[in-house]
Amino acid sequence: TGIEIYTDGSKDKNKVAAAAVINKDVFFARLRDEAIIFSAEAKAIELAFEYIKMSKFIYFTIFSDSLSCKQSLHSMNIEYPYILDILYNYYYVSNQGKIVNKPYWYTREQ
Prior knowledge:
Elements: E1 3-12, E2 15-22, E3 25-31, H1 37-54, E4 59-63, H2 67-74, H3 81-95, E5 99-100
Parallel strand pairs: 1-4, 4-5
Antiparallel strand pairs: 1-2, 2-3
């Protein structure tokens, strides 16, 4: 399975954030207050790909609990900028010779 990356997005009242956790390292981003939870979940997956791009490792698995992101990525719904960024980053890391297990995220629903 290689490196396991766990992602999550959250919204608490008006604050929205995303995070990707690799081993004991946490990468996070604060989104604008009016962002929706979907954007936070997608941004978290994008953070995972940012790590993958910089990593010397080759094999990765991204874990996410966002069914809506999974559906948008499977349908290649580029209406949302973060989905487009994730798809771009997936192809970018693939061209680097890195392997992100497909499906490249797993949900609690599976």
